[in-house]
TrEMBL record:
Function per UniProt: Catalyzes the oxidative decarboxylation of 6-phosphogluconate to ribulose 5-phosphate and CO(2), with concomitant reduction of NADP to NADPH.
One annotated GO biological process: pentose-phosphate shunt
Cross-referenced PANTHER family: 6-PHOSPHOGLUCONATE DEHYDROGENASE
SUPFAM superfamilies reported for this sequence: 6-phosphogluconate dehydrogenase C-terminal domain-like, NAD(P)-binding Rossmann-fold domains
Residues binding substrate, per UniProt: N105, S128, G129, G130, H185, N186, Y190, K260, R287, R443, H449
Gene Ontology molecular functions: NADP binding; phosphogluconate dehydrogenase (decarboxylating) activity
Protein name, UniProt field: 6-phosphogluconate dehydrogenase, decarboxylating
Name of the gene: gndA
List of catalytic residues: K182, E189
Length: 480
């Protein structure tokens, strides 16, 4: 093949292969290289007609030689050392203005470092949608120099998902911004999945429903406000039959959730930013606890199983649906608040409505609600989504359901950590006079950290603790 390829790709795994076919299908020539060297030729053969646009490369030198200049090469490989190693191998083969694009799920701190140190143009790009999305239209979140994004934007916009014709691919901001946004996307994904799993647990253990009976409940929710990819696939997962046993597949899947790190990164970064994401945190904790199967079995044999069956008529699917709507709004409110905090911290010009728009199609968290979120954020990007009139109305209508689900589930030993953390977040965010005055009193007592006064606005004030310590019987709190 004499024609030069428009773009290169390293890593023909699940995502890289699907993305390459998508790129070829949209009329671009793509050169591909893989660590296992027989893979590119085999891949081209399997690509059928699209193979005409796929240039298999035996070596990295071949890959580089087959690209039109200035070159652009996508890395679709595991994050961490493999990315650093691949950059180190590629850079000496490239010209100064050739672009490397890391499209895996990288930690954005690594992306910032690589943009500064990798010796040439570098973009960090989040891609969401799993294999199906990568093949037919993912959501794409780019970060780095705008001019570098603009160079490859025609290809990326062509292969991305479209929402009413608008591409779900956008430049998010400077170095690290794309991978940061993808990381928070995944954090929200964790919380959304966990909340759905908790409602599944209530239906299974609280109501004694089988997976095939639960499937239509989720399918029904997918027709309403909760319409989303995750609810849709939950219905499909619940409906699936296991070929080996002939029974429901869900019932033979081990109850220990895997994770590759993006949820954890979201939580760690949220803590650094002081922008709490408790629903995401609860979801990460739940995955970690899910992995402790033996310990959980010990717990059950020691304490006995909780009294799970619910009373007749309690927590019906319609109520669970309302609770899930409320919980979901809490997750997204937390995620967007965190993104806004990061924009301030890192000096990124993150456009919150644009982020919501890019998530409307293609990605794993795509849902009907995201369009309304984009509108609400466009009205006022600095306002917590929870307070936007559209979502406040939803919350006013559904918060009682969330409260009833959390309290009834808790009373019956059904663990609902993400839903309950969503409720606790709501209750904290709707309480003008909280309880941290006690924390401040305690801090001042043991460490003289000082407190601010409500009445006159003065700060750095201290209580009469020295006197209280000297007179332990005196609890009057009065000085002197
Ligand atoms: N799967 C998904 O749903 C999504 C994944 N991602 C991200 O995309 C990236 C790729 O994921 P995915 O396609 O699922 O992974 P796979 O495991 O399916 O494929 C990994 C690919 O990377 C190559 N590879 C592995 N280690 C190295 C290395 N040290 N040097 C060079 N190449 C290497 C593999 O080559 P070989 O064939 O030789 O093993 C293979 O081509 C990851 O960062 C992942 O987090 C992002 C969004 C969704
Ligand atoms: O990025 C993704 C989806 O958006 C990947 O599927 C990712 O692997 C999901 O995270 P985890 O494996 O931790 O569940």
């Amino acid at each position: 093949m004499d024609r030069q390829a428009d773009i290169g790709l390293v890593g023909l795994g699940t995502m890289g292969a699907a993305l390459s076919l998508n790129i070829a299908e949209k009329g671009f020539d793509i050169a591909v290289w893989n660590r296992k060297s027989d893979r590119p030729h085999e891949f081209r053969k399997q690509a059928g007609e699209l193979g005409a646009r796929i240039h298999p490369a035996d070596t990295l030198e071949d890959l580089v030689a087959s690209l039109s200049t200035p070159r652009a090469i996508i890395l679709m490989i595991p994050s961490g050392d493999p990315v650093d190693d691949m950059i180190a191998k590629l850079r000496p083969l490239l010209d100064a203005d050739d672009l490397i694009i890391d499209a895996g799920n990288a930690n954005f701190h690594d992306t910032i470092r690589r943009t500064a140190d990798s010796g040439g143009p570098f973009l960090g790009m989040g891609v969401s949608g799993g294999e199906e999305g990568a093949r037919h239209g993912p959501s794409i979140m780019g970060g780095g120099k705008r001019e570098h994004w603009d160079r490859v934007a025609p290809i990326l916009e062509a292969i991305s998902a479209k929402y009413e014709g608008a591409p779900c691919a956008a430049w998010m901001g400077e170095s690290g911004a794309g991978h940061f946004v993808k990381t928070v996307h995944n954090g929200i994904e964790y919380a959304d999945m966990q909340m759905i799993a908790e409602t599944y647990g209530i239906l299974r253990d609280g109501h004694g429903m089988s997976a095939p009976d639960i499937a239509p409940v989720f399918a029904g929710w997918n027709e309403g406000v909760l319409q989303s990819y995750l609810v849709e696939i939950s219905a499909k997962v619940a409906a699936a039959t296991d070929a080996a046993t002939g029974g429901p597949l869900l019932e033979v899947i081990v109850d220990a959730a895997g994770q590759k790190g993006t949820g954890r990164w979201t939580v760690i970064e949220a803590q650094h930013l002081a922008a709490p994401v408790p629903a995401i945190e609860a979801a990460v904790v739940a995955r970690n606890l899910s992995a402790r199967r033996e310990e959980r079995a010990t717990g059950e044999s020691l304490f006995g199983a909780a009294p799970k069956p619910l009373p007749e008529g309690a927590l019906e699917p319609a109520l669970l649906e309302e609770a899930l709507i409320c919980g979901k709004i809490m997750c997204y409110a937390q995620g967007f608040t965190m993104i806004a905090a990061a924009a301030r911290q890192f000096g990124w010009t993150l456009d919150l409505p644009a982020i919501a728009r890019v998530w409307r199609e293609g990605c794993i968290i795509r849902s009907a609600m995201l369009n309304d979120m984009a509108d609400a954020l466009a009205e006022d990007p600095d306002r917590n989504l929870l307070f936007a009139p559209f979502f406040a109305a939803h919350v006013k209508r559904t918060q009682h359901a969330l409260r009833e689900v959390v309290s009834m589930a808790t009373a019956h030993g059904l663990a609902v950590p993400a839903l309950s953390s969503g409720l606790a977040y709501f209750d904290q965010m709707r309480t003008a006079r909280g309880t941290a005055n006690m924390i401040q009193g305690q801090r001042d007592f043991f460490g003289l950290h000082g407190f601010a006064r409500l009445d006159d606005g003065t700060t750095g004030q201290h209580g009469p603790w020295a006197d209280a310590a000297a007179n332990p019987d005196d609890t009057s709190g009065k000085q002197g």
